[in-house]
Every structure is written in C-alpha cells, then in structure tokens.
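OP here, attaching both records as promised.
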Amino acid sequence: MKLVLWSYWRSSASYRVRIALALKGLDYEYRAVDLVRGEQADPAYRARHPQALVPTLEVDGVPLVQSLAILEWLEETFPTPPLLPSEPSARARVRAFALAIACEVAPLSNLAVRRYLADELRLDEAAQTRWHHRWLEAGLSACERMIGDTPGPFCFGAAPSLADCLLVPQLYNARRYGFPLDPFPRLREADAAMSALPAVRRAAPEAQPDAPRG
C-alpha cells in the first residue's frame, strides 16, 4: 500500500495526521502544498480535494480528505497501536474531545479566518490577537474540563489517543498567538507526554521538508 500525504508544514489538520501516521509507524511520501502561495487552489490539487484544503492522504492513488475521517481510516486499517479505547463510552469521550478541537476551536484560527480578519474587517494585529485569545480561552477551558480528573499522562490515560493527536497541534497554534497555557495543567501534561515521544517530534512542523530553514 502506497501512502502519499499532501500537507503544509504549519497546517494543524496536516499535523494531526502526521502524528497518527508516526505513532502507527507508517511510511509515506510527503508532498507539500504551500497554502500561503495558494497552491491549494491549483486545479490539479482541487481534483484531489474539492474543498482545496490540506491534508489529503492518497491511498494507492485514491484521495482521502478531512483530517478526522483520515484518522478514523487509519485506526480502522492499522489498528495497532490503537488510538481509540475498546470500550464504547470511552471511545465516545475521546471522539468528543477531538471533535471539540476540530470543529469548535481550530477553525477559528485557520488561514482563511486570519485573512478575513485582516483584509475584510481591517483589524490590526492587536485586535486580531484579542479575537483569537477570546476563542482559545473558551475552547481550551472546555477541553480542560472534558479531561477533568482522568489519569494521565496523556489526555485519556497511559497511552496516546486520537484526542492527543488533536491536542498537540492546537497548543502549538495557541503558543504562536502568545496565548498563556498556565490555566490548563492537564492539557499541558498531555502535550508534554506527547512531545517526549520521538514519533511525535518527527511529525512537528519544523521537522517537515517544506518548513523554512535558517
């Protein structure tokens, strides 16, 4: 099976998929899509991903899109090591956490939103930062409560899950915006546990072939 990942180094959604691929020990070919230069709008790429987004994971030439759908496919196709618990209610909790980030938090900081705030609403840098911080505070506070008193060090126990694959890119973005993470001890604990894993470090934005050098 040949896997080709169309990705952008700083894309949160791409980062999630890279983490899962690395945790499962899967080899893949990396193909960069420069979102800043607008390469996602190229007709050849849009033929792979009708929304003109990243990532796209091609499986023997067949494109899979939307990061959570790709993560579920990876879990179903390569179940070891598992990223979802075996017990149904525990699986639902992990999925709920992942969806909270993917659907409620992350989209508010994506490139299209940032450009709209700057170009259409004419918000200066300080106003944009306040806007992002307001929604990060709401979203990450909810995520901290969703983990609650669940033993760590990862989001939902002693091993990484789908939730951790979503958390790491979100906290990476929060730090980009200078958002303080001190009020979220469980999120920071899980993030630190993930960051200690060599597989996760290989998936980091700065480790990607299209990341700026120097």
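Record two, same layout:
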Amino acid sequence: MSSHLSHTDFTSLYDRAVEARAGGQYQQAAALYREASELAETHEHRLHLRMREAYCRLSANDRHDAERIAADVAREARQEEFHAELADALGVSVEALMLDERYAEASAVMSEAMYVMERVPNDPAYYQVIHNMAVTYQRCEFPIPAIELYDRALRLARTERDRTFTYAGLASAFHMAMIFSNDEATASRHLHDGIYAATAALDSQADREVVAEAIALAHRSVLLNSIGHHQAALDDAVRARTIAAAHVLREEEVVAMIGEAVARWNLHKDPTVVELIADAADRARTLGVEVYLSSAAPVNIDILWEGGRYDDAREMMAMQFNALSRALQREREARWEHVRLGVSLKSTEALSESDPLTNLPNRRYLSHWLPDVLENHGPVCVALLDLDGFKQVNDDFSYEHGDHLLLELAGILQRICRRGDAVIRIGGDEFVLVLRETSPNDGRAVLERVRQLIAVRPWQGLPAGLRLSASIGVSVGSGAVDASRVLAAAGDALHVAKREGRDRIVFR
C-alpha cells in the first residue's frame, strides 16, 4: 500500500469515526477508530486513537473492552511519558472503579490523573483529552473541577463542533453544581450559567450533533423549571427524550424525564407524573446518576401532600433535606480531599526528583530512570554538557543573570530533544541529554546542532557581543547494568573536551 493511499484511508476512517460518534453510533465509531489506529504514523497517535475507541466503547456500555484498552494504553503511555494519553486512560479507569463503587481506588487513580493533567499542554491538539477528563470529574460528582476543565477545553476548541460539545458539557456540570451548592446566590449563578451554556450549544452554527443536543436540551429543561419557565422546559424535555430514545442516550433520557415530570406537574397538576419519576429513579440508580433526581423531590412531596399522604410527605422531606443530603455531601467532600491529598503527595514526590530552578528532572531521577531506558531502548546516547565560561557570567553580571541564562538553555535543550528523550540538570551549568534508540552518528548530529545553537545565540539580558560555548562528552550504552559505566564514560569524555580546547564534542 502506498503512503498516499494509507494517508487517504486513515483520513477517511478518522472522519467517519468522528461522524459516527457525533451521531451516537458508538459501536460503529469504536470499530472505525480501531481501524484508524492501525494506520497511525506514530506510537503516540496510535494510543490516542485507541483511547477514542475506549471512550466510544464505554458510551456503548462495553465496559470490559473499554477497561482493557485503557489498561493497555496506560501501561504504554507511562513507559513513553505520553501524558495526554495516560490522562485519557486513567479517566476510563476512574469511571470503571466508580461504577463498581470502589471509591477509595477511584480516588487514588484520579489523583494520578489530576497530577498528569497538570502536565498536559494547553494546546488545541489536546482538546479531547481535557474535555474527556472534565466528563470524568463530573461523573465522579466533582462539578467545580469539571467546570474548570470544560472552560479550559472551550478555550482550546478549534471547531464549532468541539465548542458545541463543550457548551453542552458545561450545561450539565453547572446543573450538578447548582444541586450541590449550599449557598443560594451561588446556586443561582450556576443555574443561569447552565442555561446560558445549554443555549450556546443549541444555537451553534455547527451541523446538528445529536449527543450535544440531547445533553443541552435535557439539562436546560430542568434548569428552566427552576426559574418557572415550565412550558419551555416541557418543550425541551420532550425533544430531548425523543433524541435520547432514538440514540440510546440513557443518562440524557433520565434527566429529560425529570424535566418533563416537573414541567407537567407545574403546568397541569398531573398526578400521573409520579410514575414517570419512579421510572426515572429506577434508571438513575442503574446508571449511578441519582444526583439529578433531587429536582423531582418537591414534586413527589406535593403529590403526596395533595393526596392526603402527610406522613409519607414528611418522611420524604426529611430524607431529602436533612440527614441523607448532609451524609452524601460529607462523603463527596471526603473523597475530594482524598484526591487532592493524593495530588499533593505526587507533586511533593515529583519535586524531590526535579530541579527547583528549571523544573527539569534532577540527578536523583536520572539514577532510577536511566537503567530502564538503557534496558529497553538501546542504543542510548548519554551526553554530559557543560557551558564554557559560565562562571564568568555569574562573576561579571549577577547570579540572577546566570539563572535566567540556565532557564533559557533548558528551554533550548528541551525543544531539540524528541518526545521520550530527556534533559536533566545535575547541578550548576551541567546538563545530561539522554537520546533513546540513537546511534553514535545520529547522536553526533543532534549534539552538533546543540553546540552550534549555543555558540551563536545572543542571550537575553546579557550584552549582545557575549558568546558562550559548550563542551559535550558522550557515551553510548545498552543494558541496565551499563548505567554507571555510561555516565562515568560521558564524564571522562567531557574532561577530554575541556582539556582539548572546549567548544567541542568528544565520544567515549
């Protein structure tokens, strides 16, 4: 197959997968994403497409395959340090654990997911990852962090379709935030923000997206009821139920049923809506979305009261507004504190392995990471770089100027290295570059580019005529037992480069 044909086939498969997903045809979309992943040009892109498949399978209630794919992707993404794909995979794992009511394990995995998300760049290429994690936060009943991520995704959305999906997600998150808010003014703000977001999704100029439309209509129906616009709420709810039933969107159908029941009661005092609420409650418990039932509780109470069932009405009021709601709130807050503690611990652990000035990995990180790289990604070029004349910068100008120069140098080195390579600061003006699966000839080409860039660069904040150079010592190894030998050899080669006149590369 020619490369042109492969690219054409890939584009066709990917576009068809996107269309199928937007239309709620999740099984078909999953199969198309799987086919597209087999034609992906890079390992990272292949993992990205496998996660698109996993999320589609999750939406189609194929949990077993979704969890299996996510576990495989997480394992590979950790090894390759693909943060976006790892975050995506962890999101699926969190949802699976939540559905199994394994909350402690879910909180631990979410801590890792949140920590990894902080390392995903704010780049439009990662829109889907950020949007998916917002959905995961919301399904774990953490609506405020979900709203923050939806806002982040909205800023990165490149297409009207992406913006439509994000606004729909925001509407549902604001709805949940309104339910959980104990402050009347805050709840009101969430209510109106939710209506705005849902309307923005429905007024979109993009081709009609049935999933986004169902989400926006269903949640807007409940929110409109809250401000007394019951006829508009009923219209939204009926439309949402029709779409949700046709495309098997079960959660949206439950929310729309609640919206319809509340609207019909307020418009017509129709007592039969109690049956609709009971049906919605059964479905909500199956899906784990009982939180949305709170909007129907006042209607149930009204029906019981008007039917003369005063004791039942009082019991429901007590259950709704007293012990149960407080207990659920305490549990949710405890889970959130558990997640935040996990993120804090991971950040503390990471700081102990990172350089405080440049935020690059440090010598401690190198000591346990390099053996694994040598074992699994040989041959590996390990280069020890030292700036010639850096001490003079500190002496003639200031240590602050020296720190700015080191930060600038760290950025240069990171931009030159490929994904999966590493730049490590081991102290002062000494850096280690680790180039995986790199022959000596290829390593020399990369490092010569580094040497030349440093030699000609005008450094910010320093005199235009000031020029620095770099001495670089390199060793090549393969196998975990080579770690200490390779580093020692690179150090010896650096000493030779310094001794022979500096501004040069020496291999050992």
